[in-house]
């Protein structure tokens, strides 16, 4: 999967499967250390899939050294084509044993600690004699040894790794709290004083339990992303001597080349994006588009890699292969989005390490201060400060919320390409819609054709111009003329170009022609053209040369079934709705009236749309722009969140933050609901973590909390934010959601 770049030096990239990561601090440490290696240009970890993408200079480093550096940090790393499942199974089994021993020890040790809590040690003639008290303490110590020596070992290893790399992670205060509690209790066992073996064991058990739940939640939220990565076809059946024979050669799907012919039997995955050249079948594209029903494929239809051929055998001609396929692009964009964090989360992550350092200093000075107040309590209070303020809750669960939101939306055909779009969409104030292909189906059909002026080969010229564009209007004209005027394929074409918001221009047989809007054609003809009365409410496109308009096409487009409902839902959520279109005013106002949109503007160029969005932003608006055409590119680039339709022009998809692969506008509203809920959960988690620490730190400093209180509070605070993230799954699912639950 390595790729090369020839800028100044050879660059290589590779995806790695990582294992052994437990929390955000692990991600921070690996990224921090790897970026310090020579030749590393970028290194990003996807917390949902535990995959990492690294780009490095081949002249300065090697993949072997990069993997060795990760292993040296105490984590597992393999190239993405090698599964770390065996390593993870071993680690999971070991984690369950550690949890079992800690839980068993906690139950036993409570029996020995209970009498000391209920009956303080009196004189020799009391209920609990000093000898019996010491015996119970020794028994507690012996039970604690396997917990500290085995169950808590991962915390100590991580802490030592962090300290060795001059990095303070969450396991540093955790380990310090466990060790100080244990050894101070050992000292008190033989020299006299209060012991907290039960607190140390409880702390380890609760922390292991919380991390086990976090790990399960993390896997749950990453399922949608992992399912997509597992869809990448492994084997392809390449036709060797077609059409003379149907002999096939099995080869790695990544080895296919453009124009290769493949035989795909029923039940197999499509190995590459391509075109059906023989056969008929139905393809299940649900995991890429969110469309639950199989899609009929005939000769000439396009198929996408990763889809499942449900019925008959088909022969496909490859158009995009390997990492260039639609599926590979989806995986890459989703993994990129999952690694990005909203601004509020970046702020918390930025100060997490500083917060840990500050807490250690606070604990030290608290212990020194209590040495003058109550020396016998100084150490325990300092330990309580360390344990209770461990900022697990501050860094945990946010990655879970993000990956859960991205996976949940992907399940419904909404692809988040930019993780920051979650926060921005949640805060959006204005939704701006294009018309053709967005509010309408974009499947225009020519309902009326009129000859304005006779010209030789006029229809053939129009067909040739229209077939050079992916715009819905051009495609409709090309479809209407394709069968009637195939002679256009033999005409000489020069300097064909598409002008955004205008149409197509080219020299055909030495003469300049334009096909597109009336305004665009008028620039060439320099004459005023009035739309015929019978075409007043239709979308009109004209063919013209320097002498004037030749053909007039009236096109009709149906409104999407969910357009009206989507607009109404957004309006009920107090969002301002605008309709911006390059079409004529009569057509635009007709669509706006059907959808209930008050602010509708027509006859707009791409620059006009750009200016309107910019004006809204200057007034303080947060704009979500939804479009599908080439003329939406500039406005999409400027919008706070750019949403493109799955069937839209490539340029609009490239410049988008969110892609509606399902082509359902109703999913836009669902995306807004999920983004709002996700961002609310993130804020709740951060507010809870901050509020907890604001209460816990002073309480520990003034001596209100015992070490076992601190252990319980710290573990429960982490568990609360993790469980809070799961509330995202309580959102009602759209009716069209796939029956196969990915999550």
Characterise the protein shown here.
- With about 750 residues, the protein is an alpha+beta fold.
- The protein folds into 5 domains: about 10-85, Alpha-Beta Plaits; about 90-225 and about 340-400 and about 685-730, no CATH class; about 235-270 and about 275-320, Calcium-transporting ATPase, cytoplasmic transduction domain A, CATH 2.70.150.10; about 420-440 and about 560-655, Rossmann fold (3-Layer(aba) Sandwich), CATH 3.40.50.1000; about 445-555, Calcium-transporting ATPase, cytoplasmic domain N, CATH 3.40.1110.
- The protein is built from 26 helices and 26 strands.
- The strands form 6 sheets. A 7-stranded mixed beta sheet has the order 14-26-25-24-15-22-23, with helices on both faces. A 6-stranded antiparallel beta sheet has the order 16-21-20-19-18-17, sandwiched between helices.
- β2 and β3 form a beta hairpin.
- α5 packs across α6, α14 (about 400-410) runs antiparallel to α25 (about 665-700) and α20 runs parallel beside α25 (about 665-700).
- The two termini are about 30 Å apart.
